[in-house]
Structure prediction request, 407 residues.
Amino acid sequence: MSTYIPEHLVSDIIRRVGEEDFRFLGPFIAAGPAYMQLVYTNEVMRTANLHEFFEHGEYAHEDSIYRHFLQKCFEYGNPTAKYMESLRFLTQKGPSQEAMDSLGESAEHSIFGHYAYGLLLICCGAVEDGKEMLDGFLQRVDNFAQGVMIAEHVEDEIQEMGLLGFRIFWDYFKPTQHRPVCMLYHPVDILICKHCFALTYATRCGSIYDIVKAHLLTSILTHCPFIAAGPTIKEAVYSREVLQKADLSEFIYNGELAAETSMFRPFLLKCYEKGNITALFVESLRRLTQDGPSQDALDMLAESSTLNLNVLFAFGMMLLCCGAVEDGNYVVDAFLDKVTDLTEGFLIADQVELQIKSMGASGACVFYRHFNLDQLGPICKLVHPPSFDICEHCFAFTYAVRFLNMC
Prediction:
């Protein structure tokens, strides 16, 4: 009896196997060129199940052993491959019409692709189109919580694929130019709503990712090879000239790096000892929010207040929380004069709040004995039109209360 199986049946078997899981195609590829040729066909590659790439973004990393197979599937138009590869290209290389078109095609097949397409449209400067796409996404999901879950999953995928952090969207999307209806102000137990969903996640992808959450920690890690090179070079790295001017911006935007358990904390303290202005800010803010009022810490924070608007806002908040209401209001007013508009003020305030939480705010009520709530009462009496919940008159009061409760 003949054991011959027609080629078209073998191809159909391989296709069905690949639809179960792309890994099951490995034995066919290893069996020799004849079977490999049957695997690398349009029918098989286009329908191969690449769900593991979707769940594990690192499989799409440029150094991954699976990347060659992903690219083959991409060439044959596999929807998951188009989604993963276009998302990787856009977040690592920057805006590309071809990549956007590819991501747009994947949006028809996947709710995750739908979200990612809207997000990247905003980051690439097509803000209104992106908002419209994300509005459609929120209508498509079962509830808002599912939308947030999908957004977080896509964020994880981007990081796992090898986010470079080269500020590639910086010239295309400016978060401060776009105001959500909610003005980024919500009840204490809600951090995001449908009105600021698009702005929040586009900011995290377009600016905070590129500036802040780029896990290469470039400026810190560039010192590591010199530190490891031996005592002579290490001594040169730990000189005042180097540490005083070291770029520690990652510590501002990744507060966990300054936590007491962080592996980077010894380097931060070395920079602090040499008078690095960013280290002064980060360490003084950590001490004040975790240990409570201290004149030395306030003096350090004041010394670093010229660094950027984040520091100026933090200094005003700490003065208020420590009971220096008049001085604190003066500094916060100066901060509001320097920002482009109130929305930019909200973004900076929320970033400082996130920094404090990430450093390890204890919630031990360290400011309760010093904070003067009555003296800080705002002119507006917290009464506003229905369209917004905070104004320039109650800005200082609102965030001071939030910091009081957080610390």
In short: The chain is about 60% helix and 0% strand. Residues 342-359 form the longest helix (18 residues). The chain has two domains: 50-212, 218-406.
